[in-house]
Amino acid sequence: MSQISNGKPEAKVNQGSASTLKPSLNANVITGAQVGRMIDHTLLKPESTEEQIIKICEEAKEYSFATVCVNSYWVSTAAKQLAGSKVGITTVVGFPLGASSTFVKVAESRDAIADGATEIDMVMNIGAMKSGDYETVKKDIEGVVLACGDVPVKVIIETGYLTTEEKKKACMLSKMAGAAFVKTSTGFGPGCATPEDIKLMRETVGPDLGVKASACVRDLDTARKMIAAGATRIGASAGVAIVNGGKGEGY
To answer: Quick check: is 221 catalytic?
Structure first.
């Protein structure tokens, strides 16, 4: 986690993100605790309070989640709560529409890293993707990747808006642009993460990139199906329920 120095969080470089658990892992025998180490414990609601952010940070430490995932305003709060722990901090950029300019996404990324973010989940330029402007999509991702340096970038391709061929193209563009992960959804768009999409994404990017399943993963059985399909990270607000074998609600 980030360390606090002179009252200002310093970003920790997080190198091992894409290989938290290998996609070849036998998902049928994976335990709730093992899944927990793959979870980005998520709270992205606009009405989230400081008390709620602190709570998910405490839960993340208790259950050894990979990261907490919060809006950029809350990154410095999470950094203070998680200082000295092994839990990382993910924040979202260009969220949830992906329609910000690259300049804005780069500035948002740099500011979040300065506050303590250890991973960046950026939303792809969905409109450019649907327009077939692949060069813009790639340059947008490259700009954020370059700005983030050693901090891993996950590209949210928002599968609910894309055709099968567009999903493949979005994954390849993300890989070419240097992303560490491809991710299914923001949770604010249509549809849910599905094993079929995860399998397609894994086949497209190969074994070296991370694949993050997010939206509607609310229980251990669903998480196991995503892992069996090739996911190496799970984005969920129901992390505690997943680890404990229950069923949660929300993102």
So the answer is: no
